[in-house]
Structure of PLDX1 protein:
Amino acid sequence: GTVFVVQWDKVYLQGKEDVGSFTFQAALHSSGRIVFGYKEIPVPVLQISASQHPVKAGLSDAFMVLNPSPDVPESRRRTIYEYHRVELDTSRIASSSAVEFTPLPTCLQHQSCEMCVTSELTFNCSWCHVLQRY
């Protein structure tokens, strides 16, 4: 009830099955903490070709738009728009390693007017007396 874990087991690079398989996890904690765990990374991530698809590691906000494909009327082309990216240094990703992201404080943590107005957050947060919320 406090963590959601997704695991990828024995994932192979297309056309490079001989290098071995990757096994890794993403754990989303109810506290907002995110942990990427890397169990098996058979080759350095920097050596993975980005010719077919970009090689990225980290977090980002994004949204996807499905557009009709001009070449094939029945199909759709998806476009992903990405913003607010936090990238990991892929040279640090190795077998038996982990990376942890801890959320910064936000207005969501305040449970009272006193906590809100005395916080040291760097953005303009204010308490609403009508709603009894930040």
